[in-house]
Amino acid sequence: MKEASVGEVLIQALEKLEVKFIFGIPGVHTVELYRALSESTIRHITARHEQALGFMADGYSRISGKPGVCFVITGPGLTNILTAMAQARSDSIPMLVISGVNELTKNKYNGGRLHELPNQTKLIKQVAIATYTVKKPENVMKVLHKAFLKMTHRKPGPVHVQIPLDVMTKPVPTDISFSPLRQMPIIVDPLKILQVSKMIKASR
Length: 204
Known about the structure:
With 204 residues, the protein is α/β, with parallel strands linked by helices. It has one domain: Rossmann fold (3-Layer(aba) Sandwich). 41% of the residues lie in helices and 18% in strands. The protein is built from eight helices and eight strands, in the order E-H-E-H-E-H-E-H-E-H-E-H-E-H-E-H. Strands 3-2-4-5-7-6 form a six-stranded parallel β-sheet, with helices on both faces. Strand 2, helix 2 and strand 3 (43-45) form a beta-alpha-beta unit. Helix 1 crosses helix 2 (31-37) and helix 3 (50-64) runs parallel beside helix 4 (76-90). The longest helix is centred in the N-terminal third of the chain and has 15 residues, at 50-64. It is globular, with a radius of gyration of 19 Å. The model has no long low-confidence stretch (mean pLDDT 85).
């Protein structure tokens, strides 16, 4: 059975989801993603600052109608893009921010880690409409499906996916089934629509 790293499989999945552009700044936390990106059909666009990346993805989404996808490193890379994500949330713009995060396994030397934050998930929850962590290699597709559903259905907005460094390089079968989850459309009572319409017409 052929295998690839989690980073490589994620890039392949983004291709199948018809992602044409990724806005990002390479870094040590995302090197595995870029290793796979160099072999893909997705075009990479970089900037000098993560906030600029976020606004570029936001603008792309507004013009194309497709989600803007960003790659950022953990810690300051993620905090730098928060302003653009906040704007995307305010305007209901679909944006997917994929970041690294420090290892799930504990540091045996009990020392500090590169770009360490007390709790990256709690921080991003204040801005993103959802945040997911790929805790197991075999769950990478499932997490990506959830992220795209949340980001594009009902009320769109920015979604965050983080991949621990010790998970991003682990092998996973390349023949993982890829069948995007589908969400049932919202069914609205026609009488309620009529009621709201009458209220609007009667308003001053």
